[in-house]
Design a protein that fits this description.
Helix 1 packs antiparallel against helix 5. The radius of gyration is 18 Å and the shape is globular. By secondary structure, the protein is α+β, with helices and mostly antiparallel strands. The chain contains five helices and eight strands. A six-stranded mixed β-sheet has the order 2-7-5-6-3-4, with helices on one face.
Amino acid sequence: MLNTNLLQLSQIMFKNKFPNVNDGPDKIGAYIRNYDKDRKPLSKKQRSKMPGKYRYIGATSVNDYIAKYNFDGIYLLLGEDGTVQDINGYPVLQYIHGKFWPNNHAHVLQGNKVSTEWLYLFFLQRNIEGIITGAVQKKISQKNLNSLSVTMPNNEELSKFDNIIQPIFEQIRTLEEENERLLEIKKELLTNLF
């Protein structure tokens, strides 16, 4: 609940600071580092042979836990195919930190010349219906994703905003890690009781 409130606060600050960000001469692709080429999907059979503690993450959520990871750090996952938008036309996003293994159904992104957190807040408020293709299976290609128009703030504005939101996102990450530890303790206690 606290993380939800912190994220909502960050979103309000973003909208107030950058009210005209969705239109402009720039393309968001210039501000994205895309790691899709480093994704390596694993079948359910492959994953069953390597159970572990690292998250195997799909377009919308954690699908499994495995013994290996191939990413470590702060990333933004944006649904690439299947479930790519919510009912209001906004992208399906996951703000991920730590060690994990993404499958091939989510774009794996970081900010380029902007923080990953700024990129996350940008996409949280950006309707993406116009870049989705596919009638049966919805898809967001890298090309279409990169083509979204944006009015980029100058470096000073970005830096000032980052100074405000980075402590908030640090708190979000800390609370998520504490929740993970508490779940592990709960699991261990329940295992020992039964």
